[in-house]
Amino acid sequence: MSYREAYARLSRIAAELEGGEADLDRVLPLLEEAREAYAECRARIEAVRAVLAGDWAGADEDPEDEALDNEADEDED
């Protein structure tokens, strides 16, 4: 899912919940859908932040892997 699609899902869900017309049985599934869309948006934003911070390679890496690489570099010194 693209950032634009995830953001549109969040906007639609927010409007439905704010409108007060969502059936109570639908609220929990809506919140789960919103959580997933939010996670997609956040991941994209974090990737862009990493690139803007100059960490071009780190934009594709797992932060945990990067920490292990840094520890290995320190051990070599």
Automatic annotation (TrEMBL):
Keywords: Cytoplasm, Exonuclease, Hydrolase, Nuclease. Coiled coil: none annotated. InterPro entries: Exonuc_VII_S, Exonuc_VII_ssu_sf. Residues 56-77 are annotated as: Disordered. It comes from the Bacteria. It is an enzyme of class 3 (hydrolase). This is Exodeoxyribonuclease VII small subunit. It comes from Deinococcus multiflagellatus. The gene is xseB.
